[in-house]
Amino acid sequence: MVLFSAASILLVLAMSSIVEANTCPKECSCDGRKLTVTCVGKNLTEIPQTIDEITLKLDLRNNNLQELPKGAFSLTPYLTHLTLQRCNILRVKEGAFRSLGRLVSLNLAYNKIDVLYQESFDGLSALKELQLDHNRVEEIRPGAFTQLSFLNMLALTHNQLVYIPNMAFQGLQNIKVASSQP
Fold first, then answer.
1. Average pLDDT score, the chain
2. What is the pLDDT of residues 63-86, one digit of tens each?
3. Residues 151-169 pLDDT 10s
4. Which of 64, 70, 81, 56 is nearest to 27 (CA)?
5. Which strands form 81-83's sheet, in the order they lie side by side?
6. Cβ neighbours, 10 Å, residue 1
7. H or E segment to which residue 15 belongs
8. pTM of the prediction?
9. Distance between CA atoms of 108 and 106, rounded to whole angstroms?
10. What whole-number distance in Å separates Cα of residue 74 and Cα of residue 57?
11. How far apart are CA 66 and CA 92, in angstroms?
12. Which of 1, 132, 151, 155 sits at a 20 to 30 Å CA gap from 86?
C-alpha cells in the first residue's frame, strides 16, 4: 500500500511537469513540483484560462482585474491559496469563488472593494484566512460571511466602514484574530 502511494505521488509529479509546459500561461511562471502559478505585475485584466486544473497556489498580485466574474476560478478547483492583492478589484460577483471549496487562504487586500454582498464568498467553505484590509469597504451586507464557518482570521483594517448591521458577522464561530478599524 505504501509503495502504491509513493508511485502515485511520483506519477502526479511527472504528469504535472508535463502539464506545466503545456498549460502555463505565457504571462506567468509555473512550478509543476509545487503546483504553483505566479502572474505578478503583468497588467492582466482577467484570470488566465490556461492555468492547470491541479494548481494549488495562484498569485495574481499587482494586476488590473477590476471585477471577479461568476465562475472566475471554475477551472482551478484545487486551489488552497489565492492572492489577489493590489488588483484594482472593484466588485466580486456572486459565485466568483463558488468552485473553491478547498481554498484556505484568500488575500484581497489593497483593492477597491466597497460592498461585501451576501453572495461574495459563496463556495469558500474551507476558508481559514481572509484579508480584506486596505479596501474601500463601506458596507457589509448581512450574511456576507455566513458560509465561512472555518474562518479564524479576518483582516478588515483601513476600510471605510461607518455602520455594521446586525448579522454582518453571522457564521463566524471560529474567529481567533479579528482586526477592524477602531
1. 87
2. 999 999 999 999 999 999 999 999
3. 999 999 999 998 788 888 8
4. 64
5. 29-31, 36-38, 57-59, 81-83, 105-107, 129-131, 153-155, 177-179
6. 5
7. helix 2-23
8. 0.84
9. 6
10. 14
11. 9
12. 151
Domain 1-182: CATH class, spelled out: alpha beta
From the list 128, 132, 63, the residue with the least C-alpha distance to 100 is: 128
User: Buried b / exposed e across 95-118, counting CB within 10 Å, b at 16+?
Assistant: bbbbbbebbbbbbbbbbebeebbe
Residue matched to cell numbers 471585477: 67
In this structure, what C-alpha cell is assigned to residue 104?
A: 484556505
| DSSP annotation of 121 | T
Structural contact between residues 93 and 68, judged by C-beta atoms closer than 8 angstroms? yes
| Residue carrying the nine cell digits 471560529 | 174
CB 33 within 8 A of CB 13: yes
